[in-house]
Amino acid sequence: MAADTPPQTLYIIDGYAQFFRAYHAIRTPMSSPVTNEPTHMTYGFVGMLLKLLREYGPGHLAVAMDVSSDRGTFRSQLYPEYKANRDAPPSDLKPQVERCLELMGSMNIPIYGAEGFEADDVIATIVSRVRREHPEVEIKIVSKDKDLQQLLDEKTALVDVHKDTVNDVAALDATAGIRPDQVVDMLTLMGDTADNVPGVVGIGPKTAGQLIAEYDSIEGIYDQIDAQAELPKSKQPIKGKRLENLIAAKETIPLGRELITLRHDCDVDFDLAATEVVVPEMDVDALVEAMRVLGFNRLRDEMATLLGGESTAAPAASAASTSPAAEPTALGGLFASVEATDPAQPVAGDYTILRTEAELAELITQIRAAGTIAVDTETDGLCAPVVGLAGISIATEPGAGVYIPTRSPDQANHLDEATVLGALRPVLADPSIKKIGHNLKFDLNVLRGHDAPVAGIHGDTMIESYVIDA
Questions:
Q1: Which CATH fold would you assign to the domain 348-467?
Q2: Does the pTM exceed 0.70?
């Protein structure tokens, strides 16, 4: 999506928002084959980060993080119930956050935080400072957090890297009918059950937007309530339960507004020059090695290509020559033959892009003749049930496969999604044709979400690797 990014564009990643999104997007447990540390969140976050670097080409990049403190934040001091209803983070999140911080350190991506404040406040502070000191710089905030919409202006927008969507001033007007300076009032009316922020009972996003659009502000709403008091109830614009609920919430409205309003005065030592993305200064060797340790082979190769490092792993032959012959294991030698065999060597590949209906028909014939295929989907995100489908890869024999794009910048040069899935559905649903994949559950959910259920599941190499490494 995001080619032609101006060099003076600062991308700010909302750290924990992206961590949690990656954590919940990949449900399949993953762990390092070397350290056994959990890796599924790390995998999702690194994938997002590489996509950001590859497709958006940020000239400047920073991360904003919450900073742990025994005193909490100014919001929890102001209102002890703030976020008190949240569960403790899962135990396998912290080591993955630490690993991600380590990786970002190797990429020289500065991380900003301020004790007593949240990441959103840090982002607001950075945005204000850049607006004062570098008004020419465009700012893209990598987050879907609705609270951050109050920071939108003509040069500041929210970006969803997974879905390639932008939430800017125009989008806010189109969806809610309000201006950025009205966002706080809209959110105050709504409240936030996830954060325990009080609002007005019965008022959701649509109603809140309508009220603010019509009366301009919360003060305007209550001015209207006061002004209509002398009118018959039938002629009052605000009436019924809505009127009752607004009157009942009047005393808590100031508290909600203060909790939702972002602070722009965090003690953050921000320097735009320090956020410049300079690939030659990144520790590419350390990054590629980390990908190897984590078992992220595809991301390792992608990182090496993107950043200019070596993607090859340590030579297998030397390792094999110094290893003693494999002994039978406690499993009775079940995997003895696997352990004693030299690692498989990659075969020369014959991989092509399928673009026409004639080629698609020929592929269907090959699939039915082969009886076993490997399947992989390419998507625009990690939340399998709702992602967009960018393409499908299918292999009918080792070293030979096709990629069938369904979405790209050059849409006229390949088949559309309806045509591709229409042809593939019968073979995907045929239980007599065996399907193999890697993290196949993800692909099954993607295809099911596009009305293309898969039958005949035969193997998943990721699960098999876990069994062997167990």
A1: Nucleotidyltransferase; domain 5 (3.30.420)
A2: no
